Amino acid sequence: MATTQATPVMDIPAHVPPELVREIGLTTGPEFLAAPHAFMAKLHETHPPIFYSVNPLIGNSWCTIKHEDAFFALRHPEYFTTAGATPFPRDPNNYFHFIPLEIDPPHHRKYRAILDSTFSPQSVLRLESYMRRLSNELIDGFIDAGEVEFTTAFGRPLPVSIFLDLMGLPQEMRDTFVGWAVDLLHSQDRMTAGLAMRGIEAYLAQVIVEKTARPDDGVISTIIQARPGGEPLSEREIFGFTFFLFIAGLDTVFATLNNIWLWLAQNPDRRREIIAHPDQINAQVEELLRVFSVTFSGRTLTQDLEMRGVQMKKGDKFNSILPACNYDPDVFPDPTRVDFNRPRKPILAFAGGVHSCIGAHLARLEVKVALQEWLRRLPDFAVRSDALISYWPGGVVGPKSLPLVW
């Protein structure tokens, strides 16, 4: 495990103790990219609960790997603000916030309420039959071939197609949308990411104009027509809300499914366990979400704060490494073991607090339906013997490709 190497000392604040400085290549380094979940689980053995991560690509920040600390940060916006939480560059002369992520209470509630009913458990359940039909249509397309590239034939089209229907966006542009998201979220080249950002901005601006004139029953139209407190949202509010949902909906469940199916393909006995206990599907989904969570949670300190004896200052960046927090042995004994009978405790796969993922109920149902329908029709499968599994760099953790055979 890499520790303090050739760190850019000039970027490390004077109040940061040298012994807490680490350069570990989080989200971008070779050790992380070789096996990211194993890498993050091992941090509990090699790193203090809070340390200062130096990363020339994504910036420096305090990091926590403890479930309790992340839970505190997520639930206390008076200390940890989400303002500027996303690293994507925006024109300062035409700035927009990623809504509702970058809006703190009490204003956050105004935006969140607009879509609460759309993503409620009751509303999401209405999509179940559609999810099952789509899952089977996708499986029909490759089951007789005896092999498939899971990421492009099932892992991507299942959640992304559902998301596009919810948003009111065209299915025929799915691959274009995903390409933009991949370039923006995973490219290490600023020019590539910038081109993707501009492509998304131009497209969504056009869509908003069209749906303002001709609204439909999709999420974008719902945002446009919302009147919180009796007043419409501004053009920048509508744009920031739409942009954030667009990015958030294209990559996270996709990456989660890829991680889970890699594990399923490598653990036939555990596949059989899932199949043999269909009444435990909800617990099975929750445990798989814990073990294979894919995102991080960035904040900025609004005031000085001491945690675990570490003095942090107002303006410091703070990152909860959520997958590592889900491996906290103080909360989840034997944390890397997939245990479907594990006592239920809050997981951080969908963050927490007021900024918990608005699509959490949708994501859980998508994973549940995908598991049920796939294992019903393809109970036996494996990773192709010559496959080399590699992972995308960036803030959403998942393998680039997953060739399966049966």
UniProtKB/TrEMBL annotation:
Alphabetical keyword list: Membrane, Transmembrane, Transmembrane helix
Database matches in SUPFAM superfamilies: Cytochrome P450
GO molecular function, one term: heme binding
InterPro entries membership: Cyt_P450, Cyt_P450_B, Cyt_P450_sf
Membrane-spanning intervals of the chain: 238-264
Superkingdom of this protein's organism: Bacteria
CDD domains hit by this protein: P450cam-like
Transmembrane helix is among the record's keywords: yes
PANTHER family assigned to the protein according to its UniProt record, in alphabetical order: P450, PUTATIVE (EUROFUNG)-RELATED
Family per similarity comment: Belongs to the cytochrome P450 family.
Full protein name: Cytochrome P450
